[in-house]
Design a protein that fits this description.
single chain, 4 helices, 14 strands, globular
């Protein structure tokens, strides 16, 4: 009895060419590289993923609908005295620790690499990554500046140009984050839903975040969390009906 020869797939018969495993791997890596060169789109929901009433956090979803980042804050105290905020990935693993600078005239916040040890909140044991504060003490706007690690005091910040700037209005969900040289690295816009013909702009608690390629997405998300702490809500006059 003669052995039965292996059956060829219709695609191989039509093309007369076999796909080598290394060629398939190269194609996969090529598609991944193309995806990395596209801007990353996120939907930011100003609410803790835990969903408890009164929580003040963030739930951030990627373009596929998966939970990418989260911030769970259960403090009801004022933002300045709420203490440390922990930025986590979608699975709850700690990424960055954000802490307000005590007695800061410009509402400065400092970012540290999150400690792997539970309960360790000592700043001296953590790697300082950047500081973020308002651009101006006088003007009441949403513009802010970021100084990367190396400048931790106000005098250092005043003597050195910022590494990043936030231009526009964060609370109106219309702002851009730029490098010191002016290059745009991320933008925040109002979230829109529905068909093209019937587009609905959602409320301020849900907005879109676009991060450009080759930009640290975790760092940009940390900027967004701090902006929520230091920026003022736009004044809305109370309208009374007679």
């Amino acid at each position: 009895m003669h052995p039965v020869p292996p059956r060829s797939s219709p695609s191989n018969i039509a093309t007369g060419k076999r796909v080598h495993p290394s060629d398939a791997d190269a194609l996969h890596h090529s598609c991944t590289a193309d995806a990395d060169q596209q801007p990353a789109l996120y939907t930011v929901w100003k609410r803790s993923s835990m969903g408890f009433q009164g929580t003040d956090g963030f739930s951030v979803y990627d373009a596929a609908g998966a939970l990418a980042f989260r911030v769970d804050n259960y403090s009801r105290r004022r933002k300045l005295f709420a203490g440390e905020l922990l930025l986590m990935d979608g699975h709850g693993a700690p990424l960055l620790a954000l802490r307000p600078q005590i007695l800061s005239m410009r509402d400065q916040w400092n970012c540290y690499r999150a400690s792997e040890e539970a309960g360790d909140k000592s700043s001296s044991r953590r790697q300082h990554l950047f500081s973020m504060r308002k651009c101006s003490l006088v003007k009441r706007n949403d513009e802010a500046e970021v100084h990367m690690s190396g400048c931790t005091t106000s005098s250092d910040h005043d003597a050195q140009a910022p590494s990043f700037r936030v231009q526009g209005s964060f609370w109106r969900r219309c702002c851009k984050i730029r490098k010191g040289n002016g290059e745009e690295v991320a933008r925040i816009t109002r979230k829109k839903a529905g068909a093209v013909s019937e587009t609905v702009t959602l409320g301020e608690d849900v907005f879109s975040l676009t991060i450009m390629p080759n930009v640290d997405r975790t760092m940009i998300m940390a900027f967004v969390v701090i902006l929520d702490r230091i920026c003022q809500r736009p004044y809305k006059p109370l309208i009374c009906s007679s």
